[in-house]
Write a structure and sequence with these properties.
The structure is a homodimer.
Chain A: E1 15-27, E2 31-38, E3 41-48, H1 54-62, E4 68-77, E5 85-96, H2 114-119, H3 121-124, H4 128-150, E6 154-155, E7 161-162, E8 174-177, E9 180-184, H5 189-196, E10 202-210, E11 223-232, H6 236-257, H7 259-264, E12 279-281, H8 282-292, H9 307-317, E13 321-324, E14 337-338, E15 341-345, E16 347-352, E17 355-362, H10 367-376, H11 385-388, E18 398-404, H12 405-413
Parallel strand pairs in A: 3-5, 6-10, 12-13
Antiparallel strand pairs in A: 1-2, 1-4, 2-3, 4-5, 7-9, 8-9, 10-11, 11-18, 13-16, 14-15, 16-17, 17-18
Helix pairs in contact in A: 4-6, 4-12, 8-9
EC number (chains A, B): 6.1.1.23
Subunit structure (chains A, B): Homodimer.
Protein name (chains A, B): Aspartate--tRNA(Asp/Asn) ligase
């Protein structure tokens, strides 16, 4: 193709070809303006009807909005143009004409509901403030991977087709795998643990997870992207340090490298979390929640935290915080309990004031205790033999955690609905596009 | 946990705690050596039986091989030790005792077949030369992502649960999705195309793909990791430039940052590809293959290239090369044909002398031609409405391609079997671990 110049790079005096979408055409009579939009920004193309070739003017001014065109011509300084420059077209080529009627207005002048937006994600993502969310998402992934590498962690990819789910048969999507029953994996948990027992010692993965939960809420997805971390020779306290470091690295990278995107989203005061995140024990959390008086019914030890309870505590704390020392019975089998108090686990959650972001903990690395944990949870350890048997061959003490990328983006950017943080969400009702 | 020092960082004069796996114990009578192995390397721990606490000696020398221990003590220079230093233990703690019998020998002294290795990946990956493959794999992913960002490409994640496969109903794993029929996606193809029509323009994804192929060969997997690239406003020639650039970036990063790993794998002459990759048309390729005389039967125009044909041509060319201008009928519907010759497509393959690495091409961006292509391929365009309809609203000309990560690693490192390039392979027979 012809050498193409981004509109943002077009300087007065240049002779260039720009290509993009017809954002708007304004016909003022003797003169008309076409605003061409590309990834980098917009440029004004000026048509002087009496002085230009008739066909050229006709092509430029009759093309439908959102058509794809390329324009070759001179760039001139023009103070009255929005970007201070405008183009005088020597030629215009229509690369792909758009229909006159669009299911969604990419200029954003006409509001669309989320469902229409998701049905037409291509058009929806022509809005700069929607695009900004996904540029930020990509920057977050870059930043967390860099952070992991800086602490000696190796990227892994674990299988998404599995014979058994992490926590048994619930909430799994079944697959037919060459006539055998299999499932889409709900978490890399067991596989990343197997890898800390290998020579890799410290690993991370960014990949999809699948949960057949019936929830249909603004903060649940049936397919999500997970950031998983696991390391040998650390305990739950050190795992929380890494978790906190990862989150801060993500926020700092966005603050530093996504200023334009944050502007588009209306953030003139994007705050990066600083200071150590408070670490409340579960018991302290319960007490503080009860003390807020926000709940109709007082919580008692052993209760899981409802959405309302999380909100009350989040408002009270006012920033990110950890909840540690959860009752063993409400944490999964692979979380280790305290030696001197087997009713309390070394599991933790990282909380944003709006919701839970991370689950993690010190893991059970002793074969006997692990198999017992399976049984207590009503799971058959035999089915997980591929996993448990490796604990007999030198499994180090280890700890780790997992972030949902979408919740991280949702809370970072104050999005109302988690579906805004994923290109093509999958939920109870939505399987397409 | 106690502050832990990697064995490679232990310097004479230090008092440190190291932790890792018991690699070997050599008892020479009055003196004994325990070799402790961790991610960074190995260290010799010396037990002087007459001078040390009896319990300490007993603990250190009776622990099974591959148990996890931590040792605290003094580091001393010792020329006769393999690394030039040794530790005099003040205390030894057994963190997790391994069984006496292991299903696989992590020291590599006893060979194991691939199936046993894959059944016991945790132990297998304690071998430094196996670990090296996955450190290199992680470095390749880092390098290609950096390369993509350097050319203004945004990372995306597209759904793995889909209503329709990229190329229809063949070779798809079916899922039950809340009572509806769905599939595991065989390629991000359609979704990444939808994204080049959005404001993102140029995107990449690294993620799993799923193919229900019945093949059970040393170079096929049913779940693989794909590197996908797609960009608006480029043609197939420019897509090949990016493809070549990505491959070279990966090789150069490995040559620069994985010298230790390459040493372990026995490469003292790891070659990074240089010079422009030859671009043969399909017709030229056929002629050259026939001219080698390696094939029992001469190829004729329209034939797909068999494994034997690829090998014959690969030997003849002797390095990476592209095959361009494929007959339209053996390329999928979304590849564009030449305007002046609709029987020839703008599809291309990147070939390594051993096998195909990449499929790519200029895409069909015109609504009418796209729908026609579906019909010609025997697919119902209605079923793909979520995709085709976006081509009516300003889809730019675009091109792209996809690499299989495992084939890239396999050819880069000269691995015999593609399963060596994936932690937990999925094939016709293997669903666990």
């Amino acid at each position: 193709m012809d050498e193409r110049t981004y509109t943002a790079d077009a300087e007065p005096g240049d002779h260039v070809t720009v290509a993009g979408w017809v954002h708007e055409v304004r016909d003022l009579g003797g003169i008309a303006f076409l605003i061409l939009r590309d990834k980098s920004g917009k440029i004004q193309v000026k048509f002087e009807k009496d002085e230009m070739d008739e066909d050229l003017v006709e092509t430029g001014l009759n093309v439908h909005r959102e058509s794809v065109i390329s324009v070759t011509g001179e760039v001139e300084a023009e103070d009255r143009a929005p970007t201070g420059v405008e183009m005088l077209p020597g030629s215009v080529e229509v690369l792909n004409e758009a229909d006159a009627e669009l299911p969604l207005d990419p200029s954003g002048k006409v509001d669309a509901d989320l469902s229409t937006r998701l049905d037409n994600r291509t058009l929806d993502l022509r809005k700069k403030e929607v695009q900004a969310i996904f540029e930020i998402r990509a920057e977050v992934l870059r930043a967390v991977r860099d952070y992991f590498r800086s602490i000696g962690s190796t990227e892994i990819n674990t299988p998404k087709i599995v014979a058994t789910g992490t926590e048994g048969g619930t909430e799994l999507f079944p697959i037919t795998y060459f006539g055998e029953e299999a499932f889409m994996n709900q978490s890399p948990q067991l596989f990343k643990q197997l890898m800390v027992g290998s020579g890799l010692e410290r690993v991370f993965e960014v990949g999809p997870i699948f949960r057949a939960e019936e929830h249909n809420t603004p903060r649940h997805l049936n397919e999500a992207t997970m950031i998983d971390f696991e390391s040998a020779f650390i305990d739950h306290e050190e795992a929380m340090d890494v978790c906190e470091g990862t989150l801060k690295a993500a926020y700092e990278a966005v603050a530093e490298n996504c200023t334009e995107e944050l502007d588009l989203l209306g953030y003139d005061d994007f705050e990066t979390p600083d200071g150590d995140f408070p670490r409340l024990t579960y018991e302290e959390a319960i007490e503080r929640i009860n003390a807020t008086g926000e709940l109709d019914e007082q919580l008692v030890y052993g209760d899981d935290l409802s959405t309302e309870a999380e909100r009350a505590l989040g408002d009270d704390v006012g920033g990110h915080y950890f909840i540690t020392d959860w009752p063993s019975e409400i944490k999964p089998f692979y979380i280790q309990d305290y030696e001197d108090d087997p009713t309390t686990s070394k599991g933790f959650d990282l909380m944003h004031p709006r919701m839970e972001l991370v689950s993690g903990g010190q893991r059970e690395h002793r074969y006997g205790a692990l198999v017992e944990g399976f049984e207590q949870q009503g799971l058959d350890p035999e089915q997980f033999d591929y996993y448990t048997k490796m604990f007999k061959y030198g499994m180090p003490p280890h700890a780790g955690w997992a972030y949902g990328v979408e919740r991280l983006i949702m809370t970072m950017l104050g999005l109302e609905n988690i579906r805004e943080a994923v290109l093509f969400p999958r939920d109870r009702q939505r399987l397409s596009p």
